[in-house]
Every structure is written in structure tokens, then in C-alpha cells.
Amino acid sequence: MDWGRLKTIFIIAFLILDIFLLTQLMNKQKDNKLEVKTDVSLEENLKNDGIDYSNIPKDPIRDQYMSANTKVFSEKEVDKLKDQSVTIVDGAIIYSELAHPFKIPEKLNVQELEQYVKNTVLYGDQYGFGNYDEKAGTITFYQKHQDKLLFKNRSAHLVFYVKKDKEIDSYEQTMLEMIEPISEKEEVLPAMRAVEAIFRNKLLKSDSKIVRAELGYYTVVNMEASQVLTPTWQVVIEHDGEQESMLVNAFEGQIIQENTGNGKTVLEVK
Fold first, then answer.
1. Which residue numbers delimit the Regulatory protein YycH-like domain (predicted)?
2. Which CATH number is associated with domain 50-65+182-267?
3. Is 119 helix (H, G, I), strand (E, B) or coil?
4. Are 93 and 172 in contact (CB under 8 A)?
5. Most buried residue, 31, 169, 203, 246, by CB count within 10 Å?
6. 3-state SS of 4-43?
7. CA–CA separation, 172 vs 158, rounded Å?
8. Where are the alpha helices (DSSP H) in 49-190?
9. What does the pLDDT look like over 31-80, one tens digit per residue?
10. Global pTM?
11. 3-class SS at 219?
């Protein structure tokens, strides 16, 4: 047996294997660099536009699709409400006029308002503050599920009507029940992807600040007596002293934009 020739064959074979492995490693490193470069590019663009996004959460989150049914209020339930004149509309809407209007302080105190809700409204501890629209004269709370708000849901909200003298004199309440998962939990898109979706669609103005990004739910299928909810990021943006919120589907990365009609429009992430 020609050991010298066999040795040469082994050396060549190992050399070819080493070259192959080295090529695979270099390609992998190249791919990783491209991924990092993409992330850095977004961050650099945000920085160049003077956009502060330091408040967004970074930890991975898992969530799932949920189903829910419209709650029908009973006379027995509303009888518990004191100092109020209550009307049930179509079984699912409570309209109440307060015997003693609630004065809103010059500077809105959300914690004080939340305590008022707990003491005044049916299942008040299941609602969280949404927004105060001074022009419309409304303060809106949204129902919560596992401490996550059901964003912009007309079937799960609490709307206080504010008079010109800054007093709440009435409210409207709707609610969902039997909120249950209908899919397995999976990791949602990070909050940074929601910010990216807004930025790529040119909806994020220069010198803005991301005040917060919180995960909640938004209705993707709405039937008369039931709904399907999807995990959704709400991104609150401040620009020139004014705030606005945008919703991004946390599974698909789509921006949800409500229009003036009954439907909604959706912008894809570019």
C-alpha cells in the first residue's frame, strides 16, 4: 500500500472540508452582519430624525387570539347602582345619568378617576383609562383582560360625558364576557417592529417621542354577539406637545387605521 499517496489524499480531503466549513462560517457571519446592519439602520434613521424611542419595552412577550361574547346586563345588576337614573338599551348598553355630577380637577388625575369608576360603575375594576378628549367632551375607559386594554372597542368601553363646566353628568357602558383563548400562545412581534411599521409608512414625524408602547387587544372579527381579538400594540406618540396613538397588529405587523366610517383601513409594513 502506498502510504505516502494515501496520506496526500487524506490531506487534500481535509483541506477541502476545511474550505467548505470556512465558507459556511463566513456566509453565516455575513448574514448576521446584514441583520445587525438592518437593525442599526433603523435606529440610525430614528436618531437622525430626532425620534426618542427609549421608553418602548424590549422583553419578548407571548400571547394568543381570544374570543369574547357581548354581555347582556340584567335589571338585577343595575339595581345595585345608587344615585343614578339607569336605562338599559338593547340589553347590552347601560346609559346612566348621575344624581351628583363628578367635578374634574383642572389637571386630570387618572388614579382618582379610576377609583371613582370602581365606586360608581358596575365591574368598574375591569376598566382602564383610555383617553380624555376635551374637544368632544368625553373621557373613555376600555375594558381590561389580564391587565391588557381592549383598545377602541365599542362593545367594551365606558364613556363619561363631560359638560362645559368640567363636570361628568352621565355615562355609557358596554362590556364583553367569556373572554377565552382560541389559539396557542406564540411570541408576538417586539414593540420595536411596531415603531418600525409606523416609521416606514411615514407616520412618525421628526422630533417625536414614543411616550409608551403597550400590548392589548383589538377586534379582528366582529359579529353581533361575539368577537375575535388579536394581540395589538398601542404606540403613543408625542409631537409638539400633542399626543396621538396608533395600533399595530402584534402578530402580522400591520398598522390599524380607523376611518370615519364603520370599517377600518390597514397599512402593510413596507
1. 32-251
2. 2.40.128.690
3. helix
4. yes
5. 246
6. HHHHHHHHHHHHHHHHHHHHHHHHHHHHHHHHHHHHHHHH
7. 6
8. 75-78, 110-120
9. 433 343 445 588 888 888 899 989 899 899 999 999 999 999 999 999 99
10. 0.78
11. strand
Could you tell me the three cell numbers for 193? 417592529
Which of 82, 177, 93 has the alpha carbon at shortest distance from 121? 82
Task: Report pLDDT for 9.
Answer: 52
Assign domain 69-179 one CATH number from 3.40.50.10240, 3.40.50.10260, 3.30.310.160, 3.40.1350.10: 3.30.310.160
Please give the pLDDT value at position 2.
Answer: 54
pLDDT 10s digits, 128-151: 999 998 889 999 999 999 999 999
Task: Determine the Cα–Cα distance for residues 201 and 203; give it in Å rounded to an integer.
Answer: 6
Q: Packing angle between helix 3-48 and helix 191-200, nearest 10 degrees? A: 70
- Residue that is written with C-alpha cell 367635578 in the block: 103
Task: Measure the CA–CA gap between 77 and 171, rounded to whole angstroms.
Answer: 16
* Alpha-carbon gap, residue 83 to 244, rounded angstroms: 35
Q: Answer for the pair 168, 161: CB distance below 8 angstroms, yes or no.
A: yes
CB atoms inside a 10 Å sphere around CB 92: 17
Query: Model confidence over 70-124: pLDDT tens digits?
Result: 999 999 999 999 999 999 999 999 999 999 999 988 888 889 999 999 999 999 9
Q: Which pLDDT value is given to residue 159?
A: 97
Place of cell 427609549: 54
pLDDT for residue 268 is more than 70: no
CA 120 vs. chain centroid, Å, equals 27
Q: Which residue type sits at 121?
A: V
